[in-house]
Every structure is written in structure tokens, then in C-alpha cells.
């Protein structure tokens, strides 16, 4: 059951991000860059720990990563950026959904070719595939945001915290010493941010050899 946690967390995380961005949400630098960096890190860690790669496997991984970056960068051109309450907001458009579908189909096609060439399926973890794609989107969207001259939205607890904190409690030990406690109003303190939760998830998976 523990082996299913990475896929479950990734599915919930991505679904939550996509839904919120279609509705429209403040554009925060943390929410834009932390999830792809964490997913890429977890996926790369799984490759290093669990898969014996040869030159052919590495070539397919690089090809898939490049395709994911390109499609992610293209997808980053499609959300609508607008100013609300003095800072940037973003909203996905139908073009964004179209690029998601095309990129998923391309990724699946590369996977079929890679497996046919003898590359093990474990060499293409879902965390790495989605993380690379989100990273390409984050870079393009971040550059577009900087070009507007409007500031990013201020950091605050987000849906990503609520997604990752329960998983962190299940996969990792209790709060580390030095973590800031929750505030009196119930919102997480600075030490309980999404970055902290994601780091604890990754540490738990690494410790279990997942």
C-alpha cells in the first residue's frame, strides 16, 4: 500500500492544481516552482535508487524529459495573466487543456517506444514526467509574469499545503524540532509550508526505498 503513495499524492496534487488554475488563482512564485522541483527531485531519486540504467535507457529518459519541457513551456504560453488586488492572477484557458492532452499523448507515445526498445517502465516514473512538464510551464509562465511588471501574489497557505501535509504526516516522523507551530487561527506557521511538507514526503519515500 505504501508503494501507491507517490502516484496517489501526484494525482491529487496535479488535479487540484489544474482545477484551481481553471477557476483562476493568485500567481504565487512558491506555488509555481515548488511542485515541479519536488516532483523532479522525487522522480530522479527513484531512478537512482531503484533502476539500473544503461546508455539506451538514459537516452530515452532524456528524450522524454526534453519533450516534457517543450510541451510544458508551450503550455506556459496559454494561461491568461491578469491583475487583481494589485498582484498577478492566472487562469487556464481551453488552449491550456489542449496542450495538456497533446503532451500526455506524446508522453504516452514515447513511453510505448521506450518500452518496445527494451527500457523498463520503472525508468519513466510519473513523478518525473509530470514534474518536468510543470517545470517547463513554470519557467515560461514565470518569464511572462516578470515581463508584466506586476508583482507576484504574496505568499500564504495554499491548497498545496493541504494536499501535502497529510501525506507528510503519514510518510514521515512527527514535526521536527525547530518547526514553527501553527498560528492561533489554525493556519500553518512558516515551518509548515508546502516546501516543508514536500521535503518530508520525499524523505519518507527515500527512507522506505520507494
UniProtKB/TrEMBL annotation:
Domain of life: Bacteria
TM stretches of this protein: 6-23, 32-52, 58-77, 97-117
Keywords: Membrane, Transmembrane, Transmembrane helix
UniProt region (Disordered), positions on chain: 168-193
UniProt name for this protein: DUF1453 domain-containing protein
Species per Swiss-Prot/TrEMBL record: Sphaerisporangium flaviroseum
